[in-house]
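Good morning C.,

I know you're traveling, so I'll keep this short. The sequence:
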Amino acid sequence: MDKGKALQTSFQKLNLNPNSNKSTSAHTIQSPILTVEKRKPVPTLVTLCIQVIGSHLEDIIDDLPQIAFKLPSHVKITIAAIARRRRLLDDNVMMALAESSWDILDVSDSDVSDYGISVVAKRFKCLRAADISRCSKISSIGVSQILQHCDSLQILRWGGCLRSELTARCCLGILKPTLDNVEGESWEELVTAEIGQGAYSLRWLVWPKIDKDSLDTLSSECPRIIVNPKSSPFGYRGVYVPCEALMGTVLDDFILKDIDAGTWSVKIATSSSVVNSNALPIAERFRLAFAERDARLAPKRAKNARQHKRRAERDWVAVSTDAKAIALASKTQQTWN
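The tokens, ready to paste straight into the viewer:
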């Protein structure tokens, strides 16, 4: 009897419905997994190193050509994107970082000039998209260099400021196809590279403030170039519109998706308790504007101070007899050792 009761009790405790255990176990296992997925991913060691370099970029910018010599291409383009956001991107930085493997170039709102663009444009072999908007130092000379050397360029973004708008209007003639050789016996014998010039690979042009005359000129004389395309699930006239050609896209945003935004943010010494700046006195507004401008220009002032210091040291070594004596003594000591 005791064995029968024990067996009956065992059958009662036995769960013959396997789905209930699965649902219970799945519920208990799923909750910690969901909590783990919501956590911020741990940055890699390379990401942390890039963030340190980007935070102190103004301190090493003079030695960047020597430092960037052995850096991989994806690290260089990330540093260039950080430098652009910190307003430290100029010809020297761009020439130190530019690589032939880059497929995008974003120098918008930077100090890059025609000289820097002309130098780096010759390196690019597969450049697909370029953003030169709000660049007051780039003229039609720099644009022509990009179109001449970057045969794979499909997307061009320009305009945005007074100087860049003027440059864009002056460059309309560069975008138009022109014939240089019309003396061939037949069209089959002519090669495109031999008979004309123009941006033959360019298909998308982003120009937010384009005027009506320029738009009509491009539509009639450059129908292959689509100006300011809009996002659509069906594309534009059946053609897929790349995200780089959309007006609201920042060209190098995806490069910094794993980088902390604090790497390039400029800290402004203003009070967080102030909500409405219009309620402040005019003197306080001037003070806050000066503090903001001072914080924004601090990296450039530090760079200029270091350059002046190094220049003074070189001048002192070249003129001072004491410095020459110290240098000669150190060379003599090295020879003895």
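Safe travels,
E.
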